[in-house]
Amino acid sequence: MTKIPYDLNDLVVMKKAHPCKERTNIFKIVRMGADIKIKCQSCGNVIMLTRANFEKNLKHNLTQEKPD
Ligand SMILES: [Zn+2]
Q1: Whose CB among 21, 54, 61, 62 lies 3.0–4.6 Å from 11's, allowing a Cys bridge?
Q2: Residues lining ligand 1 (ion), CB within 5 A?
Q3: 17 CA to middle of ligand 1, Å?
Q4: CA of residue 47 to ligand 1 center, whole Å
């Protein structure tokens, strides 16, 4: 399995949906450091994950995927 590349401000699809009203699994990467912060694109809440957890839950990168 190849690793999905990701960068600050990318829109990503996570395996787990945010347990808010819309239950979207689309998030935006808002901080990349030792930990990753992603912002729910439905409710705007920011979640902090370790890089390992982020990469484990990352399903797609909508910004970097080429539609071909
Ligand atoms: Zn949410």
Answers
A1: 62
A2: 18, 20, 40, 42-43
A3: 8
A4: 9
